[in-house]
Amino acid sequence: MAKFIFTNMLGSFVFDENCSVIDQALFKDIDQYKNKKQYQEKLIQKHKGLAEPDDRQLFKILSFFKNREYFSEFHKKNLELTKKSIKESVNNGLFIVQTASSIGEIDKTLNLLTKRLREWYSLYNPEASDKIKEHEKFALLIAKKSKSQLLKELNVDEKDSFGADLREKDISVILLLAAQINSFYALRAHYENYLKELEKETCPNLATILGVTMAAKLIEHTGSLKRLAEMPASTLQVLGAEKALFRHMRNKKNRPPKFGLIHEHQLIQKSKREMYGKVARALADKASIAARVDYFRGKFIGDKLKKELIEKFKIEY
């Protein structure tokens, strides 16, 4: 007599009281396994009074599948399921993490190469290197304009320049580095635009509260929007300050951190120092709500949350 129903990736099986198979509906592929309910319902309608096995009966049923004849099919189905799961796991959240990481690495590269460019170009035109403080502007100008043009714009007589008179081939290798740096800046700008589009699709509320860059940093730090949404606001507040938090936990004499990555947010930066903790808590609360709404595909409430912060602290950002 039919007693129990049990389903695994091979199919849905009906067992009698002795845990022997009396009926089955085998799955041809993983898609059928994912739609297993319809196969279970057919067997339940066919065999009235079927129940889920208890722990003792489940042990006997699982022992039934230890038979070697099922091994190859289990291996095949598990492989299919793993491949499908890996493909389906690729989403916008992962693209945000990769893009944010790439921007961070480009920034590190730009800092190193620009420092080298300034030192190198200073041998030829130290006045320009000294007066043009912004790195991106500096690389762009020296790639487009000659030494005499730059000195004229800076109101420096070329005869008074401390720079050496370099050969054309020496100048060309310096300008080649400047051109590569400019291409890195163009690549960074492209990634920033791409990141904005991704966040508009994936986490518009979080991006509105924190800004595109900071929202990306938090998702990158946690690994996914899901993990960020699962965190309490108090944890989100100190993300990036784990070392300081652990120092406090080991020794209570060390003060606990008030914030982590969100320290760079304009709302905190524009606040009075004694208000940092209060502002950080409020910002983390709103960011936590925004992350959850984004993850569960709720309505856009970013403007409302941002307005509440602005009204509370009287600070525009």
Draw up the topology in text.
Layout: E1 2-8, E2 11-16, E3 21-26, H1 30-34, H2 36-46, H3 55-64, H4 71-89, H5 92-122, H6 126-131, H7 135-144, H8 147-153, H9 168-202, H10 204-210, H11 212-222, H12 225-230, H13 233-237, H14 242-250, H15 266-269, H16 276-295, H17 302-313
Antiparallel strand pairs: 1-2, 2-3
Helix pairs in contact: 5-9, 5-11, 7-9, 9-10, 9-11, 10-11, 10-16, 10-17, 16-17
Major β-sheet profile: 3 strands, antiparallel
Radius of gyration: 31 Å
Order of helices and strands, N to C?
Answer: EEEHHHHHHHHHHHHHHHHH
- Summed up, the helix count is 17
Put the structure in a nutshell:
The protein is mostly helical and 317 residues long.
Your description of this structure?
- It is a single chain.
- With 317 residues, the protein is mainly alpha-helical.
- The protein has 3 domains: 2-89; 92-197, Helix Hairpins; 203-313, Serum Albumin, Chain A, Domain 1 (Orthogonal Bundle), CATH 1.10.246.90.
- Helix content is 66%, strand content 6%.
- It contains 17 helices and 3 strands.
- It has helices at residues 30-34, 36-46, 55-64, 71-89, 92-122, 126-131, 135-144, 147-153, 168-202, 204-210, 212-222, 225-230, 233-237, 242-250, 266-269, 276-295, 302-313, and strands at residues 2-8, 11-16, 21-26.
- Helix 5 (92-122) runs antiparallel to helix 9 (168-202), helix 10 (204-210) runs parallel beside helix 17 and helix 16 packs antiparallel against helix 17 (302-313).
- The mean pLDDT is 93.
